[in-house]
Structure formats: structure tokens, C-alpha cells
Amino acid sequence: MKQVGLEQGVDLVLEGSVRQSGKRVRITAQLIDAKSGMHIWADRYDRLIEDVFEVQDELALRIATELQVELLAGEMARFRGSGTKNLGAWTAQLKAVEASRRITREAQADARRIAQQAIALDPGYSAPYCTLGFICTVEARHGFVADRRAALAEARDCAQRALEIDSYNPEAHAIAGFADAIDGKLVSAIEKFNEALALNPNHADVAARLSITLAFNGQANEAIKVAQQAITLNPHYPGWYAGVLGLALRLDGQYEEAKKAFTEYGQRVEGFGHLDLVIVHVETENLKAARDEARNVMKYRPQFSISDWAKTQLFSDRERLEKDCASLRLAGLPE
Fold first, then answer.
1. Number of compact structural domains in the chain
2. How far is CA 56 from the centre of its chain?
3. Mean pLDDT along residues 74-94
């Protein structure tokens, strides 16, 4: 196995076998660390082979989902992979989720197109409706659409459609919750996030979104715990989780830990974390470091303005928002 890894230039190898007896087939699959030879994951599937192509697609989907769980997204990948037998729809859903993590107008437009493709391939698959709903909330929050209220209405419609397909869908409750948060209804949003986690306590993305909402609602200490929970649930968590944790730490006055979290955010997602570090440095009276980070903000976001940024912030305490805006002004960022 080590030789295969060296020859192919890979760290992991998926191997398997197929045994047939009459109309029954047994397929085994295992994921192996090419360097150590250790087994990371293995499973066995017994099926009737009445339709070989249907069996092929089903097993490809199940194996791909399990690899997502093991290697990338934790338990929430298993939830997102359930509800469809259409490998094309599952693949499109996965691509839409990945595209939606990039907070730019262009990336969200791509994510929307791919999520709609997943829905077209399998209209009875609830997960892409949630992904589309999440995209709507991002577009509304960051001003990527002209009509914010229409985007939030579409998000809620997507959540409702997902629940009609699967009444136990936790992401649907979370999408409705984030729409409420963007609408300024933070208490209602927190209730919906908690409903989602009651349905699936292992959903890391839902926990991360609950954390940021708690932080905006002035519940920083609880937000820290929930952000740490999200990171634990998804060992391969995306960089924005570090940003969520950093926000909660900053609002709780844990500046050194916040710096570490925001630095990690910037290392993992190019261009992010610098704005948060500006505020941390101003609040710890290091104006030189704040102005250095302000230059990084303008390097990556040349169109940045404090007024536009303020529209994306969901603080229930407007004085807190004004304090942050004042920090950005002090560091020399444009109004």
C-alpha cells in the first residue's frame, strides 16, 4: 500500500472487492492511510443485483458520503448525503455547499446555480433547498441583492420546502433562524437554532451559526462554548469557524485568544480576519498594529467602507456596533 501511495502521489487509498453469488453481490470498501497502512474506515454492502447500475450509484453515493464524514465534514456530511439516491444531485449539492463558503457576490451566484441544479436533478432531496436558503441569507446579509427582504423571504420559503420533504431536517430550522437573525430577530433565531440542534446535536455548521448569533445578542460566554463545540464536531472545520470563535472571544474580552483565532482565520481564508484584528488592536491600545491590519483590509477589500460593513453586523446592542465602527475609524479605514 505504501508503494501505491508513492507511485500515485496520494496519502489515502480506497480499495475494495466484489463477490457475487447468484443474484446477490457483496461489496467491501476500505480507506487506508498509504503512509502507515492503517485502516481509517471500512464497510461491507450486501445487495441484490437486479439493476447493476442502480446498485452502482447507491454504493458510490454511500461510500462518497462516508468519506466526507471521515475526511472533511464530520457527521453533518452523513445528514446532507441522506435523502437522495441520485449521485449527480448529491455531487451538485456538495459543490454548492463548498461554493457558498466563499463570501463574494460571484461565489454566491455560482453556489445558487449549482444548488438549483441539484434541486432539478432530484426535487425530492431536501438538502439543496437548505443550501439555497443559506445562499439567500448570505446574499441578504452582505448586500449582494437589491431586495434584501425578498432574499429573506426566499430563504424562508426554501426552509419550508425542505421541511415539507423532511420534517426532521435540522438545517431547515437553522436557515429560518439565520433569516430571523438578519431580520434583527435574534431571540427567535436562537430558538430556531436550538430546535435544529435538538434534532441533530452533531451538526457543526448549525452550532457555528448559533454561536455567531449568540455573540451578536450579547451572550459571548455561551457563544464561545458553542463555537468550541462546532470545532470539536468537525475536526476538519472550515476557516470561518475560527472567525466565529474569535468574535465571541473578542466580545468576552479574551483578546489574546481572539488574536490567535483571527490569525488562524486569515491563514485559512485569504483576506479574512484582518478587520477583526484591527478592532482587537485598537481595544488593546496598539494603534500601530491596528493600522497595519487596516492596510491589509484595504489590500484584500479595496472597496471597503465602514458604513457598508456596519450593515452586515447583527448586534442587538447598537452601542457595541458604534464602538467597533469607531475603532475602524481610528485605524484609518474609510467611512
1. 3
2. 29
3. 70
